[in-house]
Amino acid sequence: MHELKASNRHTLKRVGFGGGCHWCTEAVFQSLRGVTLVEQGWIASQAPYNNESEAVIVHYHPDTISLSDLISVHLCTHSSTSKHSMRKKYRSAVYYFDSADKTLIKNEISKNQSEFNEAIITLTLPFAAFRLSPEQYQNYFKKHHSRPFCKAYIHPKLQVLMQRYAHVYQAHDNIK
Length: 176
Fold this sequence. Notes:
alpha+beta; Peptide Methionine Sulfoxide Reductase, Chain A; six-stranded mixed beta sheet
């Protein structure tokens, strides 16, 4: 795990997001102002959701980017309405670390429902455990942005961010 500066610890918050490939999810959240660290791996919650599912933990400054914006970005950058066969591996969820965030998360998901034709299936779950991805897969988009996978799956998500979330979007340093 990356070490955070002591002076920043009191202002940072954490939230987990799962829904699709963690390479994609990692790249999306690394592209947002106010996000200081994205840990890519697998998250487990409580039963019946205690199996690991691909996800990220996002460390962010709430005075720079709101939890509401993070949730909205998450919902529009993965299949938040799809009940596809891979949902065990790619659980659509927002994982809270602070129980005080649970109601806000549920309300934000409900508020975003009007943006979709189908019902949002994204769950609001307590965080229970995390397993970090191997080093070779961390920061995947930053290291491999020109690979076919990135061009096919990650670049379109970043286009959505540029168009819909310009107020919080920041381009990756190595991407022109």
